[in-house]
Write a structure and sequence with these properties.
This protein is an alpha+beta fold. It has helices spanning 7-19, 25-40, 51-59, 88-106, 123-131, 184-193, 213-217, 228-245, 283-296, 305-317, 323-332; strands spanning 2-5, 70-75, 78-87, 108-117, 135-140, 160-165, 173-178, 202-203, 209-210, 221-222, 265-273, 319-322. The longest helix has 19 residues, at 88-106.
């Protein structure tokens, strides 16, 4: 049975769980907000479903939930962060003000995060910047789970890209897509629910095509979306995230000495652009022209619209959870 809980209450519940597993106040609040936002907006594979993975990584010592990120100002438009084997979201939060300052001064700014774990939805990293009037892109690599085009074993991570741009009216344009045909979370959900995958999504441990999610998870791998095009994007994300930051490439992530670990120790790059420096005098008005053309052409929905609709419903009714999920969260929080 589905139940509803206020968003702030869900954040507080998730933060309480994380604090019980050696997370600092700041880190717990950041990760809890990310999970709760994904659950609220209908991205269930990145919502409370991820609690077990976070706790496995914390309890095994694979990630440091109390790490204090170190921000390095290395160029007029370039910031680096050593997350110190902590999570990426609190590292981003620590550098946010400095990143905004650089973008406002220079028109563009780049943030490179290394020694970090990103296990959540990526769009929450960029949407707030669009609401502040900036165009933002974020790129993350993860643990090896995707085969290169024509290959038979995994090299790339699912390697998502998130993009956000402000509009003249309404919510920003926001999308978050993985270079893989599916996210690892979606495969895990399919396995848990006993569903088969669509053809072309993945291969088994022998490199043979399969629709069995368990075969993908048990030594198999995902395909990139769109064949060679998605594989090229996955490669780009490795370069932009791990190569640029100095973090692990996806195939270098090795948690074999940490049973229960699930979060990839890799890298993230975020690029912030001030559209007021462009040739268009009114960037957001131009974006509205583009939106109008999409609507006139019969475009069914803009990136992010489904998420915003679910978010508005959650604001009225509360965030949807299964009854047993809420009971388990309360148990984990010691309530």
């Amino acid at each position: 049975m589905s139940v509803r809980i206020p968003f702030d209450d869900l954040v507080a519940l998730l933060a309480a769980i994380l604090r019980r597993h050696r997370c600092s106040e700041r880190t717990a609040a950041s990760i809890a907000a990310n999970m709760a936002a994904a659950q609220r907006d209908g991205a269930l594979s990145h919502g409370v479903f991820r609690v077990g993975g976070y706790l496995g990584s914390l309890d095994s010592g694979w990630v440091d939930g109390e790490a204090v990120p170190v921000v390095e100002d290395v160029a007029p438009g370039f910031l680096r962060i050593d997350a110190r084997n902590g999570f990426a979201q609190p590292a981003l939060a620590r550098a946010r003000a400095a990143l905004l300052d650089k973008a406002e001064i220079n028109g563009i700014a780049l943030l490179s995060i290394r020694n970090s774990h990103h296990f959540g939805a990526l769009w929450p990293d960029v949407e707030p910047f669009a609401r502040d009037g900036f165009v933002a892109l974020a790129m993350v690599n993860s643990m090896a789970s995707v085969v290169p085009y024509g290959g038979h074993s995994k090299v790339f991570g699912t390697n998502p890209l998130a993009f956000a741009a402000p509009r003249g009216s309404g919510d920003p344009l926001v999308f978050d897509l993985a270079a893989a045909a599916l996210s690892n979370g979606d495969v895990q959900l399919a396995a848990r629910e006993g569903r088969q995958l669509d053809p072309g999504m993945g291969v088994d441990r022998h490199g043979h095509p399969t629709t069995d999610p368990n075969a993908v998870l048990d030594g198999g791998a995902l395909n990139a979306f769109g064949g060679h095009k998605g594989a090229a994007l996955a490669l780009m994300m490795e370069v932009m995230s791990a190569g640029l930051s100095g973090g692990n490439f996806s195939f270098e992530v090795d948690w074999s000495d940490h049973p229960g670990a699930a979060t990839p120790r890799s890298g993230e790059t975020l690029i912030l652009i001030d559209p007021r420096r462009g040739a268009s005098r009114d960037f957001t008005a131009r974006i509205e022209q583009l939106v109008g053309a999409i609507r006139a052409a019969g475009g069914e929905r803009l990136p992010g619209e489904r998420r915003y609709a679910i978010r508005r419903e959650a604001a009225r009714l509360g965030v949807a959870l299964e009854e047993q999920e809420l009971a388990e969260l309360r148990r984990l929080a010691g309530q």
